[in-house]
Design brief:
Elements lengths: L11 E8 L11 H13 L3 E9 L11 H14 L3 E4 L5 H11 L2 E4 H12 L3 H15 L7 H4 L11 H40 L4 E6 L5 H9 L16 E4 L9 E4 L9 H6 L1 H8 L3 E7 L5 H14 L7 E6 L19 E4 L8 H11 L5 E7 L4 H10 L1 E8 L2 E8 L1 H7 L5
Parallel strand pairs: 1-2, 1-3, 3-4, 5-7, 5-8, 8-9, 9-10
Antiparallel strand pairs: 6-7, 11-13, 12-13
Helix pairs in contact: 1-4, 4-5, 5-7
Bound molecules: guanosine-5'-triphosphate (GTP) and magnesium ion.
The site of magnesium ion has 6 residues, from helix 8.
């Protein structure tokens, strides 16, 4: 018997972007966004062998780059033996098709790259459906342009006539699949809503960990709750929200939910498809915005996070800004001690544990239902008060004295009224 080793084709990529000097630097291509694109490419398993950033007042409608620059890119690909070009922006169907024709090798854009990473990292059924949905919606208007990737089976560039029929069948097939996936997603969403309503009924408080990808959200969830969520130095390690209870010193148990990371120029199909996952942030009582303070781009990250939160309708939630990776932040970097829309700003290290205790105390202060510590002596004749304490409040210690039971407990406002007369 013979064995065949299937070796994955090594992808050698050149990155390309246009720097327009746009007033919104986050939608522009810059050295920084290309560096980030390189990390994305790396996460997706491609080796970056070159980058090209063209200064132009605007991108070209037909070719994205200028004609001369595109030719330069083609030569660079030849010279570097590259078999993939990744653009830092979402290309229009026309740009994609034209560029593919001009370069003769595989061309993808930032959106497709992110979708590819999501596809690799999706674990749950929900995650997988959401990614596939986003991919199909991205693909639908680009079926012609994606010639070399979709129709390896034959239909080459410029196949008209019979090719068109194939295209129509492909389109119909994709639309049917989209409908099917949307129906399945709706069912999962209903289930998620059911769980959420149950939590609401139980008055469970939910805090969502949100932030730029790689900020340390999962590491933090693990540190706080002993969860074992995958935390890794790669982009978009987490796609599926994990929820865990965090025990506060006074016995309250708010839930912490880890969420999918954000990134600049996040494809809008992804945001659309991941709505039900992102809703974890929309329905949370408090947002914990985790920031990687070791990144020299943390301010841009905060901007991106806030703009996406606003997009999904979670912009006005109470927020704690948590500057994570305090152990690795550059010397001398001064972090903002207050931010206009923050209820609180704290510095922590999920890795070393620095600041974590303070953070938990702060959470306990901010979250509703705060309990206070009391010491009471309850006469033996008032047995019912003692049982109410046990039933509804958090009893820390109890000892039997000559004139009653001495109790130390955390009590909420209601509990306080019940025991007020017995304070010692
Ligand atoms: N030095 C240092 N590294 C940290 C700290 N917290 C997290 N990291 C590292 O940062 C990387 C990303 O951590 P994750 O917890 O996976 O980040 P995330 O925010 O969940 O990322 P996504 O799921 O991709 O959105 C990992 O390599 C962690 O070990 C910290 O406090 N200090
Ligand atoms: Mg994560």
């Amino acid at each position: 018997m013979e064995y065949f080793e299937t070796k994955e084709l090594e992808e050698r990529a050149i990155l390309a972007g246009v720097h327009t000097g746009n007033i919104d630097p986050l939608s522009d291509s810059t050295e920084e966004s290309l560096a980030e694109l390189e990390r994305l490419a790396d996460t997706a398993g491609a080796q970056v062998v070159g980058t090209m950033l063209q200064n132009r007042p605007s991108v070209d409608n037909a070719l994205y780059l200028g004609e001369g620059k595109l030719e330069e890119l083609r030569l660079a690909c030849e010279g570097q033996d590259a078999n993939l070009v990744i653009f830092d922006d979402e290309l229009s169907p026309i740009q994609l098709r034209n560029i593919e024709r001009a370069l003769g090798i595989k061309v993808i854009d930032r959106s497709m790259l992110i979708l590819d990473i999501f596809a690799r990292h999706a674990v749950t059924r929900e995650g997988k459906i959401q990614v596939e949905l986003a991919q199909l919606k991205y693909m639908l208007p680009r079926l012609l342009g994606l010639g070399t990737q979709l129709s390896r089976l034959g239909a080459g560039i410029g196949t008209r006539g019979p090719g068109e029929t194939k295209l129509e069948t492909d389109r119909r097939h994709i639309r049917r699949r989209i409908g099917h996936l949307q129906a399945e997603l709706k069912e999962i969403k209903n289930h998620r809503e059911l769980l959420r309503r149950r939590r609401e009924k139980d008055n469970t408080v939910v805090c969502a960990l949100v932030g730029y990808t790689n900020a340390g959200k999962s590491t933090l969830l693990n540190a706080l709750t002993g969860a074992e969520v995958l935390a890794a130095d790669k982009l978009f390690a987490t796609l599926d929200p994990t929820i865990r209870a965090l025990e506060l010193p006074d016995g309250r148990m708010p839930m912490l939910v880890d969420t999918v990371g954000f990134i600049r120029k996040l494809p809008h199909h992804l945001i659309e498809a991941f709505k039900s996952t992102l809703e974890e942030a929309v329905f949370a009582d408090l947002l914990i915005i985790v920031i990687d303070s070791s990144s020299n781009e943390f301010e841009q990250h905060i901007q991106v996070v806030n703009s996406i939160l606003k997009d999904i309708g979670a912009g006005d939630k109470p927020k704690i800004y948590l500057f994570n990776k305090a152990d690795a932040k550059p010397d001398g970097l001064v972090l903002p001690s207050a931010l206009s829309d923050a209820d609180c700003v704290l510095e922590v290290s999920a890795k070393s544990g620095l600041g974590i205790e303070k953070f938990i105390e702060t959470l306990a202060d901010i979250l509703p239902g705060k309990k206070q510590k009391v010491k009471v002596l309850i006469p033996y004749s008032e047995g019912s008060v003692l049982s109410v304490l046990h039933r509804d409040q958090t009893v820390l210690s109890e000892s039997y004295e000559a004139d009653g039971t001495l109790v130390e407990a955390f009590v909420d406002a209601q509990g306080y009224t019940a025991i007020r007369d017995y304070l010692v």
